[in-house]
Write a structure and sequence with these properties.
Helix content is 20%, strand content 44%. The strands form six sheets. Strands 7, 9, 10, 11, 12, 13, 14, 15, 16 and 18 form a ten-stranded antiparallel beta sheet that branches. The chain is α+β, with helices and mostly antiparallel strands and 572 residues long. It has six helices and 33 strands.
């Protein structure tokens, strides 16, 4: 304070230079003199001009000093400490309505576009923009040689891969080599387990020796007398005996013998009693009208069927059962091969075929689009075709939307999700025009943003007259829940707290002289709650923007703590 006093002695005020006290203008002196005269309280003799001027100076300096003291007091003293004011509320019966509202973009229930991936020339256009069409309505015709060529090329590719895959499937069956018919193995190869074997490797000859064949030639003199199914007596010199044969085929060939005779061929089938083998000499005598007819010459027996058994895949030999003269039956595994390489090749072929089929589908779809029909019922929303014009590849040429039903994507917050159900009425507004819709669906998979869970909801609007435009913004509002007579409190009066038992829940702090019976112990005190208020558990229900329903825990008329407000001594 000594510095302040020194300043005053030197004619200074707070924040004012000393020279300012000496700069007293005539106007200031006249104002001070006038003030003295108006008081009319002076009993002293009239002052000389010099005395009057000195008094005026003292008055001015005193006023300046007084202002400085007031300012300094405020600077040094600062603001008064704020006084906390407790805000309380009372539990009362009231009505409460919880609403869901927001905005969204309208969209057609279903829409389709047609895009050409190849170029072409527009030949005909059958619709106009804004026209209503039904599924199957012709739309346009575009001539595109490129599209036709793409389909042909893609189809050939699919056919090629399919043939390769079919062949591979047959080959894969050869991983377990089995005989195609019952017979006997001949000329078997020595194979060892663990060795590599290549594709198309001959491993044995399979013969069907259960039935033998015999070819004989007879004179044309017996033409028409020999028929299929007729029996014959077959002489086998090596066995010094006879067996029965059956005519299996008659071939009217024209063989000329050295003697000039004309001969035709007859095939016989002979069941093998187990003693017949290939290249045995045999002669078949046929009885015609009681007469024995002999062949021009003897023939040799042959196996009914003969094939070479070859591998259809390459790989490592896992097992082998090949023995000469071994009788085998269909399905019996003779050689087993590890076909990992073949399986990999087959998988690659399947992938190539799938890719080729996708290419064909795309090419066919684009060709079909050159003579397109409406894919759905709806309205032509966009049309980019003019007869005679060239259409570039990858151009969207038409779009059709079914606007008879309009959908809006909306959200429901976690407070109201339990109350919103499909079928509820929704109030809509588009540019000031009201509409009515219904909740079509509500998803239970939430999306959390900024700590708040929101649940997707779809609103459906019947738009048969087309008055609600698609692709525009609308606001929506629906009453999620309502209670016309329930206990309520301001939302701020209900706090979320951690209890001493490790759980958490909603509490309200009731005003009381002492702790009530239903008081709960908190693990962490709630900030800002003064003394004289005690926490009790409350069950809450629906809420609006200001109030919340109290379902249990409080009674009507109970005073509870809401918040505190700060106010200083000056009312600031």
């Amino acid at each position: 304070m000594s510095e302040v006093k020194d300043s005053v002695k030197n004619g200074e005020s707070a924040g004012m230079p000393a020279a300012a006290a000496e700069e007293i203008t005539p106007a200031m002196e006249e104002a001070a003199a006038a003030a003295l005269e108006k008081t009319g309280k002076s009993k002293r003799p009239p002052m000389t001009p010099k005395q009057k001027k000195k008094l005026i100076r003292r008055c001015i300096i005193g006023g300046v000093v007084l202002i400085a003291v007031i300012v300094l007091a405020k600077v040094l003293g600062g603001k008064a400490e704020p006084e906390a004011q407790v805000v309380e509320d009372t539990v009362t019966y009231n009505s409460i309505t919880s609403t869901v509202q927001g905005s969204g973009i309208t969209k057609a229930k279903e829409s389709k576009t047609i895009t050409l991936t190849t170029s072409g020339t527009v030949q005909e256009v059958f619709v106009t923009e804004g026209q209503k069409v039904t599924a199957g309505t012709p739309l346009f015709v575009i001539d595109s040689e490129t599209a036709r060529s793409a389909v042909e090329k893609a189809r050939k590719s699919v056919d090629g891969y399919q043939k390769q895959l079919n062949a591979m499937n047959k080959d894969i069956a050869g991983l377990n080599m089995t005989p195609p018919f019952a017979g006997k193995l001949m000329n078997t190869q020595k194979l060892n387990v663990g060795e590599e074997i290549g594709k198309e490797t001959k491993v044995a000859t399979l013969v069907d020796d259960r039935t033998m064949k015999l070819q004989q030639y007879y004179s044309y003199a017996y033409q028409g007398d020999v028929r299929t199914g007729q029996t014959a007596n077959v002489s086998i010199p090596a066995l010094m005996g006879n067996v029965t044969g059956t005519v299996s085929a008659v071939h009217m060939v024209d063989r000329i013998s050295p003697e000039g005779s004309r001969l035709f061929e007859v095939e016989f089938s002979i069941k093998n009693p187990g003693t017949l083998t290939k290249d045995m000499v045999a002669s078949a005598v046929i009885t015609v009208n009681g007469e024995s007819v002999y062949p021009y010459e003897s023939g040799k027996l042959d196996y009914n069927r003969t094939i070479d058994l070859k591998t259809t895949v390459g790989g490592t030999i896992l097992s082998t059962k090949l023995l000469d003269f071994m009788d085998v039956t269909p399905g019996q595994v003779l050689v087993q091969i590890d076909g990992e390489n073949s399986e990999n090749e087959m998988f690659s072929l399947e992938q190539n075929l799938a890719d080729a089929q996708k290419t064909l589908d795309t090419a066919q779809k684009n060709l079909d689009n050159c003579s397109a029909v409406a894919p759905i019922d709806g309205t032509v929303m966009g049309l980019a075709l003019v007869v005679g014009n060239e259409v570039a590849a990858n151009t969207t040429v038409i779009s059709i939307a079914d606007t008879s039903t309009i959908l809006i994507d909306a959200t429901v917050d976690e407070r109201n999700i339990g109350y919103v159900q499909a079928g509820m009425t929704v109030d809509l507004d588009q540019w000031g025009t009201p509409f009515s819709g219904t909740v079509q669906s509500v998803s239970l998979n939430s999306k959390v943003e900024n700590g708040v869970a929101a649940y997707p909801m779809v609103i459906s609007v019947d738009n048969a007259d087309g008055s609600l435009m698609s692709g525009s913004n609308v606001t929506y509002k629906l009453v999620a829940s309502q209670n016309d007579n329930c206990l309520t409190l301001p939302i701020q009066s209900v706090k979320n707290a951690q209890f001493a038992d490790g759980t958490s829940g909603n509490v309200a702090f009731i005003k009381a002289d002492k702790a009530p019976e239903n008081v709960v112990e908190l693990a962490v005190p709630v900030d800002g709650v003064p003394e004289g208020y005690y926490p009790v558990k409350v069950e809450i229900g629906i809420s609006d923007n200001y109030n919340v329903e109290i379902k249990s825990g409080l009674e009507e008329g109970t005073t509870v703590f809401t918040t505190t407000q700060s106010q200083n001594s000056y009312g600031w």
